[in-house]
Amino acid sequence: MINGQVVTTNPLQIPSLFGADYATTSHLAFILFSLMFVLAVLHENILGMSGEASYTNLFVRVLLVVSLLVFYEEFFRWIVYSLDLLADSIFSRSQYEDTLKAVFKAIEEEKDTGFLGWRFVIKGMNSVTQHIALALLWVLRLLRFVLLSILYIFGPLAVAASVFSPAAKAVFFWLKSLVEVSLWRVLLSILLKVISTMNLTAIYYTENVNNVAVFAANILFIVLLILVPLISKQIVSGGTVGGSGSIALGVVAHTLSKLLPKRGHR
Question: What are the residue ranges of helices labelled H in 71-183?
């Protein structure tokens, strides 16, 4: 229990769960804002001696910082809710639960035939993948909740400090981190939709599926799940995700080389 609330991993509940902590940092933020505002004015006066001052920029910064501090909770909820809504529109939690039921039902009904053949391997791989995915999803969801909670609690301090132009990077770091961590769920939804569709197809339409490709895709899926934080960072930072893809493909290639029999060997 936190502040009389039931502990949850729903990030939209963070403001109510950590209301007391936010109230403390919010008060500190307004004190910090006052100090930073004085420094900002002095800084502009010093720059004014060389004709480089811009009081208009200072006014805009003050307006933005005060507005963000006043509407901080609404802004936080809007960022998180918007990306969660996007994730649900791609692949909702109920869809994933339905996929899990379908996969495990198919396995229980022994739809695949043959023992120690590729169909048997694919059936087992689907089951293993779904179990690993459940574990990784729980870990990522918990880690996402913890990181968003930290950002929510200490965010006001970063916002308040940014009124002083040399410290303006603090709010950009906070905002980038907020979007980056919130984006995890969108990436997870994309991965889940792709692999769920492929696994269901592999189970119900085995005659039309390349089993080796499905096997490789399951390994790739697990690797990409682990790389979700890195991929999100690359997207938000304006970098490319090619590096993450190369890492994932390298792991898959190495795994397949170990698991698949080599030609020329009996």
Answer: 72-90, 93-108, 118-161, 169-182
pLDDT above 90: residue 74? yes
Please tell me the predicted confidence (pLDDT) of residue 56: 80
Q: Give residue 239's region: left, alpha or beta (phi > 0; psi -120 to 50).
A: beta
- Quick one: DSSP state of residue 261? P
Q: Give the chain's mean pLDDT.
A: 77
- Over residues 105-114, the mean pLDDT reads 52
Spatial neighbors of 139 by CB under 8 A, at least 6 apart, are none
13: tokens are 């509940």
> What is the Cα–Cα distance from 228 to 154, expressed in whole angstroms?
24
* Whole-number percent of the chain with pLDDT over 70: 66
Task: Determine the 3-state secondary structure of 47 from DSSP.
Answer: helix
pTM of the model: 0.80
DSSP state, residue 227: T
Closest CA to 194 of 123, 96, 97, 85: 96
159-218 residue pLDDT tens:
999 999 888 889 999 999 999 999 999 998 888 888 777 766 655 555 555 666 666 777
Rounded Cα distance, 83 and 140, in Å = 16
Query: What is the C-alpha to C-alpha distance for residues 200 and 122, in angstroms, rounded to an integer?
Result: 11
3-state secondary structure of 5: strand
